[in-house]
Specification:
alpha+beta; 1 helix
């Protein structure tokens, strides 16, 4: 299984008409199909790892926004 950071369409269950996008960790199967996503937390053991996560977040802005469950 692989993963990367992507923008994902989100809807607040309490406000279903309020849609937004969020950077999420997205997981893929062996053929590259997105399986699911989870909250992305920008953290690491040191500043270098946090910087790498930030760079991956910036790369996500250049990729299509994903939608799950629709």
């Amino acid at each position: 299984m692989t993963w990367n950071l992507r923008l994902v369409h989100m809807t607040d269950p309490d406000y279903p008409n309020d849609n937004y996008v969020e950077i999420r960790e997205v997981f893929y199967d062996s053929i590259g199909k997105p399986l699911g996503h989870t909250t992305a937390t920008m953290s690491g053991e040191d500043a270098k790892e946090v910087r790498q996560y930030l760079m991956w977040s910036l790369e996500a802005l250049d990729k299509p926004v994903l939608t799950f469950g629709e």
